[in-house]
C-alpha cells in the first residue's frame, strides 16, 4: 500500500492518463532522459501485459480442459472439421465464462474496483496480489481435486536454490511461475481422462464396423464412412452434447474463494 501523499506531491507509482499524454507528446529527447526511460519501460510492460492478457486468461481458467475435450470429441466422432473450430471455441468460451463467473466477480471486488476507486492510493503491486489470489484459489482447487499435487512439486524442484529455501505452507506461497504450468499439466491430464471415456463407445462402433466390412469382403469401402452415421445417431439418441457438457461442468470445483 502506498503511503498518503501531500497535496502537490507527485506519486511515482503508475502512469496517469494526463501524464501519459504529456509523455507521448514530449518527443524523443524526453523519452531517452533518465525520467523518460522509466516511463518508457512502464509503458512497454503495460503493452506487453495487455497483448498477452487473452492468452494468460485462457491458460488460467477452465478453457484448457473444455477445448481439449471438445477436440477429442470431434476426433472420436470422426467428423473431421465439423463442428467448425469457431463453433467449438465459442461454446468453450461461453462455458468458461459460466464456470469462472464467481472467480471473476471476486477479482473485480477485491482488486479492480478498489484499484479504480483508490485514486492512486493503491499500488499496482497490491492490486496484482489481490487480483491473483482468487485465480490461485481456483487453480489450486482443480489441482487438489484431481490429486495432481505432484505436478506442482515437479516444477517447484526446478526453481533456483535461493527460492526453495523455505518450503511453502499454503498455495499462496507457491510462485505463479510454478502454479501456472502445473495447473495446465493437471488440466491436460483431466481432459485426456474425460476424452478416454468419450472415445470408448465410438471405438466399439469402429471395431464392429471394421470387422463386418472385412468379413463381407468390402475392402475398398472405408470403414470410417460406414461408422460415421452410426456414431452420429448414437450421439443424438443418448443426448451426447448434454452428457459431455454436463460432465465437463461437473468436473470443476467452484466455490467461494478465501
How would you describe the overall organization of this protein?
The protein is mostly helical. It folds into two domains: 39 residues; 191 residues, no CATH class. It contains ten helices and no strands. Helix 4 runs antiparallel to helix 5, helix 5 packs across helix 6 and helix 7 packs across helix 8. The longest helix is centred in the C-terminal third of the chain and has 40 residues. The protein starts with 16 loop residues before the first helix and ends in an 8-residue tail after the last helix.
Compile the SSE list and pairings.
Layout: H1 17-26, H2 28-31, H3 34-59, H4 63-77, H5 85-117, H6 124-145, H7 149-156, H8 176-215, H9 223-237, H10 240-250
Summarize the structure.
The protein has helices at residues 17-26, 28-31, 34-59, 63-77, 85-117, 124-145, 149-156, 176-215, 223-237, 240-250.
Amino acid at each position: 500500500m502506498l503511503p498518503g501523499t501531500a497535496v502537490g506531491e507527485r506519486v511515482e507509482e503508475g502512469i496517469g492518463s494526463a501524464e501519459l499524454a504529456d509523455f507521448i507528446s514530449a518527443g524523443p529527447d524526453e523519452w531517452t532522459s533518465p525520467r523518460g526511460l522509466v516511463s518508457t519501460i512502464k509503458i512497454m510492460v503495460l503493452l506487453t501485459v495487455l497483448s498477452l492478457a487473452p492468452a494468460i486468461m485462457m491458460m488460467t481458467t477452465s478453457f484448457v480442459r473444455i477445448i481439449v475435450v471438445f477436440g477429442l470429441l470431434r476426433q472420436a466422432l470422426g467428423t473431421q472439421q465439423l463442428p467448425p473450430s469457431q463453433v467449438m471455441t465459442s461454446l468453450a468460451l461461453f462455458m468458461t465464462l459460466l464456470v469462472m463467473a464467481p472467480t471473476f466477480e471476486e477479482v473485480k471486488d477485491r482488486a479492480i474496483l478498489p484499484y479504480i476507486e483508490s485514486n492512486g492510493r493503491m499500488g499496482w503491486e497490491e492490486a496484482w496480489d489481490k487480483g491473483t489470489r482468487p485465480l490461485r484459489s481456483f487453480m489450486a482447487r482443480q489441482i487438489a481435486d484431481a490429486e495432481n499435487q505432484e505436478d506442482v512439486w515437479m516444477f517447484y524442484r526446478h526453481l533456483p536454490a535461493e527460492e526453495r529455501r523455505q518450503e511453502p505452507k499454503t498455495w499462496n506461497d507457491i510462485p505463479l511461475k510454478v502454479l501456472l504450468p502445473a495447473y495446465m499439466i493437471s488440466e491436460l491430464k483431466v481432459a485426456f481422462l474425460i476424452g478416454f471415456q468419450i472415445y470408448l463407445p465410438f471405438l466399439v462402433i469402429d471395431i464392429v464396423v471394421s470387422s463386418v466390412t472385412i468379413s463381407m469382403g468390402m475392402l475398398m469401402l472405408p470403414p470410417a464412412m460406414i461408422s460415421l452415421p452410426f456414431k452420429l445417431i448414437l450421439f443424438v439418441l443418448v443426448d451426447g452434447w448434454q452428457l459431455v457438457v454436463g460432465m465437463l461442468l461437473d468436473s470443476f470445483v467452484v466455490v467461494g474463494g478465501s
